[in-house]
């Protein structure tokens, strides 16, 4: 469902905006993953 919506949004975007959108999405995912990893690591260290 989410991916269909994302795909449709990408199709609607002008071609010059797609790289910018992809980069933003990539950075956001990377931030989330890093945050989760750090949080899990801190919880393990605390135990």
Write structural notes for this entry:
The chain is mostly helical and 47 residues long. The chain has a domain at 17-47. It is built from 2 helices and no strands. The longest helix is centred in the C-terminal third of the chain and has 30 residues, at 17-46. It is elongated. The chain starts with a helix and ends with a helix. The relative contact order is 0.08. The model has no long low-confidence stretch (mean pLDDT 82).
> What class do helices, strands and sheet pairing give?
mainly alpha
Radius of gyration computed on alpha carbons: 16 Å
Distance between the termini: 39 Å
The low-confidence parts are none
Write the element-wise H/E pattern from the N-terminal end onward: HH
Q: What multimeric state do the chains show?
A: single chain
Count of helical regions: 2
Shape: elongated
What fraction strand? under 5%
**What is the number of E strands?**
0
- Mean pLDDT, all residues: 82
Main beta sheet strand tally, sense and closure: none
Helical content band: over 70%
Write out key terms for the chains shown.
single chain, 47 residues, mainly alpha, 2 helices, elongated
How do the helices and strands line up, and which of them pair or pack?
Elements: H1 2-12, H2 17-46
Short structural description:
With 47 residues, the protein is mainly α.
